[in-house]
Design a protein that fits this description.
The protein is an alpha/beta fold and 373 residues long. It is 35% helix and 13% strand. It has two domains: 117 residues, Aspartate Aminotransferase, domain 1; 244 residues, 3-Layer(aba) Sandwich (Aspartate Aminotransferase, domain 2). It contains ten helices and twelve strands. Helix 6 links the parallel strand 5 and strand 6.
């Protein structure tokens, strides 16, 4: 069976698995303990992973905070900013096509008295800079939180421009970068306006259950203050208490190292695979297939399309022995896609929509299975 649901999760890389193994067996020390060898080994492993993540995204190692995943990172940042800076205002700006972990967090804050502006998007799910400026002008927010790359459509927001706007207006900016890590080249040191960034290990061939919240220092090198989501022993620079899952942190560190090492190869391979996949779908389904994804300014390897007259769930079940694909986000699989609704798709179009998400591990010849669907 060909696995084409890599935006939902990825296979753990062999090098990641091997790097994790010692920390599931003989290296079982707690990095918060002191002086003895097992603890020091664990602490060293965590620090090395932090350095690998920092090198991948372009921040300082002590700006990397390990969490259980992007959902927790998004929650801790948005709720943490909302609570700590509530005396400065209660306005937050986001968009209608965010990941559920951002949208549901914003809806929670709405219920307890915060004002949330949900920006409209264009036909590919991108916000318009003029809409952001208008929302800022109407009421300065304490936080702007916008997705870097859309997990269903693959569309990229213009993070450089958004970052510049937020920097100029002295507004904290958070971006969920989960889908672009290892697929889009960037360096946070050149994006001064990005104060917070989130991503997960399992989307870059690392383990499930670990993620990153990058919390950058201010212009004079002081730590950005937020209210912690988890209180306790003060681990992770007092941002996130709890005993560290060293094996998972080692895993995401190794995955980050590999992502940085292979990024040029992976972008080239994903672009090649996507083009072949698009050609095969057109050849197989002709005028029946309509692409919802843009063909440019996007994450390589994500294709969102509908097949006219085809029920997506029945299609997936019918071909599940040969191919694994999805109808959209795994985090909102029980509901119609809010992303497709936001870009103006009808209910019938949504019910006919499928998403293919590729991995650089796939060989071109494997895509020929599409001809047999």
């Amino acid at each position: 069976m060909l696995y084409l649901d890599n935006s939902a999760t990825t296979r753990v890389h062999d090098e990641v698995f091997q790097a994790m193994l010692p920390y599931l067996q003989e290296e079982y020390g707690n990095p918060s303990s002191k002086y003895y060898t097992l603890a020091e080994n664990a602490k060293r492993a965590v620090n090395e992973a932090r350095e690998s993540v920092a090198a991948l995204v372009g921040c300082e190692p002590d700006e990397v905070v390990f969490t259980s995943g992007a959902t927790e990172s998004n929650n801790m940042i948005i709720k943490g900013v909302a609570h700590y800076y509530s005396n400065n205002g209660k306005h937050i700006i986001t968009s209608k096509t965010e990941h559920p972990s951002v949208l549901e967090t914003c809806r929670f804050l709405e219920r307890i008295g915060y004002k949330i502006t949900y920006l409209d998007v264009d036909k590919y799910g991108r916000i318009l800079i003029e809409d952001l400026l208008s929302a800022i002008h109407s009421e300065p927010p304490i936080l702007v939180t916008l997705l870097w790359g859309n997990n269903e459509l693959g569309s990229l927001n213009d993070i450089e421009k958004i970052s510049m706007v937020c920097e100029e207006k002295n507004i904290m900016f958070h971006t969920d970068a989960t889908q672009i890590i290892g697929k889009v080249k960037f360096n946070l040191s050149r994006l001064k306006g990005v104060r917070f960034l989130s991503f997960s290990g399992h989307k870059i061939h690392g383990p499930k259950g670990v993620g990153v919240a990058v919390i950058r220092k201010d212009n004079i090198g002081k730590r950005t203050k937020i209210t912690p989501l988890l209180h306790g022993g003060g681990q992770e620079f007092e941002y996130r208490s709890g005993t560290l899952a060293v094996h998972n942190i080692v895993g995401i560190g190794k995955a980050a190292e590999i992502a940085a090492r292979d990024i040029d190869r992976n972008i080239s391979k994903l672009t090649q695979l996507e083009k072949r996949c698009r050609d095969l779908l057109i050849s197989k389904f002709g005028d029946q297939v309509v692409f919802n994804s843009d063909s440019k300014n996007k994450i390589p390897g994500i294709l969102n399309f509908l097949i006219k007259g085809v029920n997506n769930q029945r299609f997936i079940i019918k071909h599940s022995d040969r191919i694994a694909l999805s109808t959209g986000s795994a985090c909102s699989s029980t509901k119609p896609s809010h992303v497709l609704q936001a870009i103006g798709k009808t209910e019938n179009e949504i019910r006919s929509t499928l998403r293919i998400t590729l991995s650089a591990d796939i060989e071109l010849k494997e895509l020929e299975v599409i001809n047999n669907l």
